[in-house]
Design goal:
Helix content: 40-55%
Radius of gyration: 19 Å
Number of strands: 8
Shape: globular
Number of helices: 12
Structural class: alpha/beta
Order of helices and strands: HEHEHEHEHEHEHEHEHHHH
Strand content: 5-15%
Distance between the termini: 48 Å
């Protein structure tokens, strides 16, 4: 049973760093429940605002509805009560409705609505898609503004007016004019979070547009660094943000951009680099090469980031290969 009302959830999430835990797979690409439980327990041990299970970084797009429900249930079971778990809902409306109902049954506090798969749609279609999801649950609903699901300020306001459990707007486009219109039209009725790839890169300027938080993929493997970065953003400490961008984030982007899809794969590469391996990625993604992992490991070391080493694992290898 949810501990937060939708409004309480929005108030909680808007003032903390958010993350999307990687889903652990074994060598046969089945869900590795033990490793996933360990990962969620570790992630939720930090002062993070919320964890989105089976999301983009969690390869939710590769999970069957049954697998997604299981991943969410495992996350709810292992996360500290103070750290709410949210799920995702994607695909056709009927599938998204099932996702949200399964998530609520598993104890998730809310759901991020991913874009409908493969088809173009207009504003009324987007409204009816999200409205059906809102009506299928009492938990908080957040839309993800990206790809074929670009919500106008008016559509966002219509959802907010008609559905009290519609609480948030996540953006992956970075269109300043569009974001200004959405925030000006909806104000504090919603909370706003950044969802561009490696959101740290954009976090400080987007703060001025009302985005008080963002989703941090790198929190998966360098949680202390990610939290320090978020603290600098919220304090508008430009010098601190710039230092961390130059020291780690921008070189990290260079590795991420070597292959399409590495935005997700690099998270599992980072987990492998620090000794918390969560297994491979599922197709159509591909794993980092050994050289990529070596370069990432060297970057973590050169940036002065010393992640907590799990019991029984060796210390972070400082070699470049």
């Amino acid at each position: 049973m949810a501990q937060f009302s939708p409004q309480e959830l929005a108030d909680h999430l808007k003032n903390g760093l958010l993350s999307f835990p990687a889903t652990a797979f074994d060598a046969e690409l089945n869900i590795d429940e033990e490793r996933y439980r360990e990962h969620i327990a570790w992630q939720s041990s930090y002062d993070v605002g919320g964890l989105f299970a089976a999301g983009g970084t969690g390869e939710g797009f590769s999970l069957s509805p049954g697998e997604a429900a299981r991943v969410v249930a495992l996350a709810v079971a292992e996360s500290r009560p103070e750290v709410p778990v949210l799920a995702s809902a994607g695909g056709a409306t009927v599938q998204a409705v099932r996702n949200v109902q399964d998530a609520e049954a598993a104890g998730a506090e809310g759901v991020l609505v991913l874009p409908p798969y493969l088809t173009e749609c207009d504003q009324d279609g987007l409204y009816r898609h999200v409205a059906a999801i809102c009506e299928a649950t009492t938990t908080g609903i957040i839309v993800y503004n990206r790809a074929n699901a670009v919500y106008s300020a008016e559509t966002v306001a219509r959802l907010a007016d008609n559905h009290p459990n519609f609480i948030g707007f996540k953006d992956a486009l970075g269109d300043i004019e569009h974001l200004t219109k959405v925030y000006a039209k909806n104000g504090d009725r919603l909370f706003y979070l950044g969802g561009l790839p490696t959101a740290e890169t954009f976090a400080l300027p987007l703060l001025q547009l009302g985005m008080s938080t963002y989703s941090s993929a790198m929190f998966n493997f360098v949680p202390e660094f990610a939290l320090d970065f978020y603290s600098d953003v919220r304090a508008q400490n430009r010098a601190g943000v710039t230092d961390k961008l130059n020291r780690f984030v921008l070189p990290y982007l260079e590795i991420r951009d070597r292959v399409k899809g590495y935005g997700v794969s690099i998270v599992k590469g980072g987990l492998k680099a620090i000794g918390r391996d969560c297994g491979p990625v599922r197709p159509p993604l591909q794993d980092l090469s050994e050289q990529d992992i070596a370069d990432l490991k060297a970057l973590i070391t050169s940036a002065g980031i010393v992640p907590e080493t799990p019991a029984g694992a060796g210390a972070l290898n400082t070699a470049t290969a």
